[in-house]
Design goal:
25% helix; alpha+beta; 214 residues
Amino acid sequence: MQNERSGWLKWVLALLLVAGVAIYVIISRGRPNRAVAGIPDPVQTEAEGSAHIDLDGFDMTFHYLYSYDIEALVISTQKYDGDNIGDKLAPKDLALAWGKVAEYNDRIDFHWSQSGRWYHWSADSYEALLPVGGVEGVATHSANCHLIATDANVRATIRKIRTGDHVRIRGYLVNCEGIKKDGTYFTWNSSTSRNDTGGGACEVIYTTSAEIID
């Protein structure tokens, strides 16, 4: 009887271990096929002003172009941990979707990815994209965003964001300008349109608030 109980206990413990590992994998990988309906377009309002920081020998200025408030579904994330100034300014990019793209993310077989400060996507067929307005619908309802945190709390929240999270990001679309004493110059300009694609189409957001809604 004792051997039977011991064997049963080992079986239960093994099952719990497998379940725990499965839960951990799901949590660590995020929820790539999640969909969220009813997310509105980003709110963008003209703004004036600037902010300044010293970072890695650069005297950095962030020129405010627009205040920016975006609620979105995170469709991909990518960390950048190099030694260059861009990676230090924005060590994590978020690819975001809203509107019909966010609503149909679980029904269309989107393939989202990020690399080299770009985001990439594809789908199995053009017909599959009809509910979201075709290729143009995807282009105008998704974006790759470079997030520059204004403080340690915002930075910590950005680190926690995973694929599948429903988030709200607030701050400013900015043009970044930096110079070192040796004359080394750095610029990074934000897109201000939802209709552009290709080089320069990413949003550079000086992020004053980051919230994981669910």
